[in-house]
Write a structure and sequence with these properties.
By secondary structure, the chain is an alpha/beta fold. Helices cover about 40% and strands about 20% of the residues. The chain has an 11-stranded mixed beta sheet with strand order 3-2-1-4-11-10-5-6-9-7-8, sandwiched between helices.
Length: about 300
Amino acid sequence: MVLTKLENLIEISLSKPKKKIAVAASEDEQVLLALKQASELGIVEPILIGDLEKTKKLSEQISFEISKYERIEEKNPSLSAKIAVRLVREGNAQIIMKGLVNTADYLRAILDKEIGLRTGNLLSHIGIFEIPEYHKLIGLTDAAQNISPNLEEKVNIILNSIDLLRRLGIEKPKVALLAAVENVNPKMQATLDAALITMMNRRNQIKNCIIDGPLAFDNAVSKEAAEHKGIDSPVAGDVDLLVAPEIETGNALYKSFTYFARGVVAAIILGALAPIVLTSRADSERSKLMSIALAASF
């Protein structure tokens, strides 16, 4: 199946064995709402770790029957994250999800060198957006994990993303490397990195995708804008993946897509032993559900 809309993620995940999802600090109403929908659809089976009294009260308010699921009492959110990580490491869960726990504590448990979920690969964040004004789904990386990636790290971020997109049926994703300008400028590192990565792709050092850059955002998403500037690009106007040069750009685009473009997103962190669901508190209930479905599609 080719992914054409986020709802397809539910179909893809249902074609795979049902996953158990370990939820750190489960006392979060929006997370519980998404888990209720995901469990009712048959996508996942939650393991709830957190303040169980609060979790039970919130679940009752949304008519989510949690008594049939495994529950682990741990009122300390950071410790609940460690328990969730341990469940994944031991093979008792296949997905980990953030509840009402600080993001830094959540990631600290995941990245712990001794008991975390590292594999040796670079961890990177990707959001798959459904935006009304764009003709297909569009990915964005990295808006939440890598602050200022160097050339090697950008290549790894791209490889993580390409692997995911190909799993979702996009055989040869079109990738735009974003910068403020389209021409290489020695004073702008983003343009140098983009040009080098584009050449690596053309020489088949980065396979199974079509990469172009540097491209400004307008030229990446609009063929007309690219043609107006005289840019001949196989990616312009039909991009599958936007690669931000650093986290500020990625984060601003992510929130712009959500707040200004009415986008719905499915977002996870790639590169660990298991998919990591890391949604923003500002993400909608549907976005959280789609993020769970994306993680369950592996």
